[in-house]
Amino acid sequence: MNLTATEFPGLFIMNPTVYKDDRGYFFESYRVEHFINAGLNLDFKQDNQSKSTKGVLRGLHYQLNHGQGKLVSCVKGEIMDVALDIRVGSPTFGKAFSKILNDLDHQAVYIPPGFAHGFCVLSDEAIFEYKCTEKYFPEDEYGISWSDSSLKDVWPIKEPVLSNRDISFPILSDQEESLLPVFEAV
């Protein structure tokens, strides 16, 4: 397993070593030592999984007072994963990180607290899985619109299938600053 830092402070790409043979494949999807060696001493508290069909876009979600770090992967199909840095004071504030995740190369992304996160489904169906460093607090969930101008060239679809809640999220520049996380340099 190899963890690679990105230009976004705290955000890493995980490339597992995949062992394939005539029976299928095997890889470690998480091993604490690899993350500690990369400077990530994480305590995961909740695992989640969702199934969606082509064109579905979920997000961009975040928790403010109970920030969630997320280790995200696509266990079936293919998705475009997007993390928008909304940490006030971050050197990458307002910039988006995007990566195609699929069930072929089994890459994963660790997204630290302070990012608004979402994904859209590119294949006919996808199963998305993520480990969270904090449990879900529905009263603490906020979001940023998928159509924010910083994301205009990120999404590979133009008319996604959205939930009513996700449609109602403001763009980043319209979100009250008191409802945005603050960057903490490590």
Number of helices: 2
CATH superfamily: Jelly Rolls
What is the tally of beta strands?
13
Provide mean pLDDT, rounded.
Answer: 96
Helicity level: under 10%
CATH class: Mainly Beta
The low-pLDDT segments are none
Radius of gyration (CA) equals: 16 Å
Query: What is the beta-strand fraction?
Result: 35-45%
Which secondary-structure class do the elements indicate?
mainly beta
Q: Report the principal-axis shape.
A: globular
- The CATH topology is Jelly Rolls
CATH architecture: Sandwich
Largest sheet, spatial ordering of strands? 1-2-10-7-12-5
Describe the structure in your own words.
With 186 residues, the chain is mainly beta. It contains two helices and 13 strands, in the order ββββαβββββββββα. The protein has a single domain (43-179), classed as Sandwich (Jelly Rolls), CATH 2.60.120. 5% of the residues lie in helices and 39% in strands. The strands form three sheets. The chain has a six-stranded antiparallel sheet with strand order 1-2-10-7-12-5, with no helix packed on it. Strands 9-8-11-6-13 form a five-stranded antiparallel sheet, with no helix packed on it. A hairpin with a 6-residue loop joins strand 1 (2-5) and strand 2 (12-15). The longest helix is centred in the first third of the chain and has 6 residues, at 32-37. The mean pLDDT is 96.
